[in-house]
Every structure is written in C-alpha cells, then in structure tokens.
Amino acid sequence: MKLLKTVALAGGIAALPALALAQDAAATGEAAAHTSYILTTLLFLIGGFLVMWMAAGFAMLEAGLVRSKNVAMQLTKNIALFSIAGIMYWLVGFNLMYPGDGWSIAGYLGAFAPTVLEPVGVGADATDLGYASVGSDFFFQLMFCATTASIVSGTLAERIKLWPFLVFVVVLTGFIYPIEASWQWGGGWLSEMGFSDFAGSTLVHAAGGFAALAGAIVLGPRIGKYNKDGKVVPIPGSNLALATLGTFILWLGWFGFNGGSQLAMGTVGDVADISRIFANTNMAAAAGAVTALIVTQLVYGKADLTMVLNGALAGLVSITAEPLAPSLFQALIIGAIGGVIVVVTVPLIDKMKIDDVVGAIPVHLIAGLWGTFIVAWTNDGASYGTQLVGFFAIGIFVFVVSLVVWLLIKAIMGLRVSEEEEINGLDMAELGMEAYPEFSKG
C-alpha cells in the first residue's frame, strides 16, 4: 500500500509541469483572444471616425460645387442626413442589416427593435465577447450607412426642398440601405452566391448613385442647365478651394473606409493586410486624379480641376470593392480607369439631360460598376458574371424602390422649390439665411 501511495505521489508530482504548461497555454490563448478583441474594437472605432470625417468631406465638396446662393442649404442637408442616419440605423437599420435569426421571418421581425449595446463595465470574463464590441461594430457600420445618403445629396442640389429630401433619407438609411447590404454583409444570398464587395463599391457607392439617379429623374434638371437646343450650359460652383478641401478630406476618410473593412486587427497578418489596403487605396486615388488631369488636358486643351477632384474620388470608389488583393501596379490601373470613366461619363450623363450637380453618378455608380466587376481580375475565387449579377441585383432594387419613394414624396409633399425660389436661391427660400450674406448672389 505504501508503495502504491508513493508511486501515485510521484506520478502526481511528475504531472505538475504538464498541468502548469496546459494552464499557461490556456491563459496565453485567453490573453490572445482578449488582445484581438481589444485591437479589432480599436480598428472599428478609428476606422469609424475616419469615415465620419468623410461627412465633412462631402459637405465641403458640395458647398464648393454649388452656387453661393445654395451653400447653406447643402450644409444643412449634410449635417441633417448624417444625424438622421445615426438615429434610423440605431432604430431599425443595424438589426435589419444583420438579421438575428438567420433569414427567416422571425429574423426580419426581430430587426424591428433598437440596437442594444453591452452592459456598462463589461469585463473580460463575459461569456461571449465576440470579435469586437457591439458599440464599435454599430458605430463603424453606421458610418457606411450615412455615406450612402451623402452621395444622394450632391446630385439633387440647388432645386430640391429640404424636408422631402430628409424624408427620403429616413427611408434610405432605415430600410433601403440595410436591406441591400444584408444580402452581402449580413450573410445573405449574394454572399452565399460568391459575390465579393470588400468595402462597398456596390453596396454603398453604387447604391447611393442609384438612389441619386432615381431622384434626379423625378426631380428634373435645374433651370437653365440645358437650353432649347439641348446644349449643356455650364454652371460653375462657388468655391473650388472648398471643393478641393472636401476631396482631400474624403481621401483621408477613405483609409478608414477601406482599412477598417479588414474587420480584424488581432494578428500580424491582419495588420500587414491593413497597411496593404492603405497603400492600394492611396495609389488608386492618385492614379484617378493624374489620369483625369492628363485626359482633360488632351481632350479640352486645358486641365479641369473639378474633373481631377472627381477623378481621385472615382479611383477611390474603383478600388473599394477589393483594396487588399491587388498589387500596387494593379491598384494604379484600376484607379486610372476610374479617372477615365469620370471624364467620359460626365458629359454622357449631361447628354441624357440628367442634371447631376457634383458628378456623383459617374463617380459612385459608374466607377462602382467598374470596381465591382474588376474584382475577378485580382481574386481567383471571384467570377465576372457573379460580380455583375450582384451589382445589378442591388442596383435594380435600390433604383426601383427609390423611384417609388421619390414619386410618393412628390405626390404627397412636393419635391421641388418654385421657379422663383430656385432663381433666388434655396438658402433664403428654405432657410432664410445665407452662407455668404456679404456677397451678392451667384
């Protein structure tokens, strides 16, 4: 008996190092999980406030590209739409975009409830921390929703009433955007089909472009934009310095837009991928700007600053569907073709008598199509056909629903200011104030 006890004791002592190693391994794994949670949460928060900064970029870009008599109206629309998006995405959008019970009726019904955050002071011992905090995920995704609405604002500038526009924003940010985004990012049918849109060339940018296109068709062009012969009459913006500032702000915010869409920062590989995304994003923007600069010089005999600004933005939209996989050279090609698209399609849109004040449809919709399609060039698992199916499925849904909503708003509230109000400027007609009261109207 003593011998058995001695052997058992010796065996137990011998097992202690192994037990200690197992405990150390478990502790190390737990620490790694907590570190990943913290870093990914931080990525969402930093990426989110960078994308929020894009709201300022859109506001400055639009303020610079409209006439001075409409600047205050554009600024009001931009801060209002961002704020409405924040409320609507909390109220219904976030849960609608990520159905809690799969793709059943119960999942969608469960979406009609406000988003709930973690308890205050939640600790590392929580049973299910997830990969990042709910608050950071909600905040990051919200910024994409608001960006979609910002795209619509610029196209419809200088002739739309304030409150009908904001009613549309309620529907867009609460329902239209979350539903179509759920098809891909919420694990829906496009995701299962193999469609790929890394950061939203289609889900955000083209969707905003389709909503803007529907609105422009219903609203009609500005007074004096097209003469009786159908010739386009240029209407210069009020402040190209502001427009340039807005473009640089958008360029900066795009690093959060694309980089944050890596959705993880807990490993060396994730961080390396984020840096690669940053480099490719910058390259595409630069290539789009330079290409637009060169093409406008060749075509018009003079470089066109507004085309260069939109060329940079088109390069950014083009790389957004897949900013990780391309090489820097491929990113340059993708962005450069985006710059060409803008120079070519802006006059084409005008020939169709679709009045897009800031060029958002060429930049976000057409370049979004290009960026989505070309994903198959750099991603072995992607299909050109599947990419087109995804793009047009989302495009048809957003355009048709937006068209119906615009028509309903027009019938119920009216959309457009009177001819006299449009000529005098929306600042005074809709707001009773001017952005530049010391200057004459322009």
Task: Note the topology.
Elements: H1 2-65, H2 71-97, H3 105-111, H4 134-155, H5 162-182, H6 189-193, H7 201-219, H8 240-259, H9 268-300, H10 305-320, H11 328-351, H12 360-373, H13 375-378, H14 384-412, H15 419-424, H16 426-431
Give a quick set of tags describing it:
442 residues; mainly alpha; Ammonium transporter fold
What is the helix content?
over 70%
- CATH superfamily membership: Ammonium transporter AmtB like domains
Unreliable parts: 6-10
- Assign the CATH architecture: Orthogonal Bundle
Q: How large is the count of helical segments?
A: 16
The class by helix and strand makeup works out as mainly alpha
Number of strands: 0
CATH class: Mainly Alpha
Distance between the termini: 105 Å
- The number of domains: 1
* C-alpha-based Rg, rounded: 25 Å
What portion of the residues fall into strands of 2 or more residues? under 5%
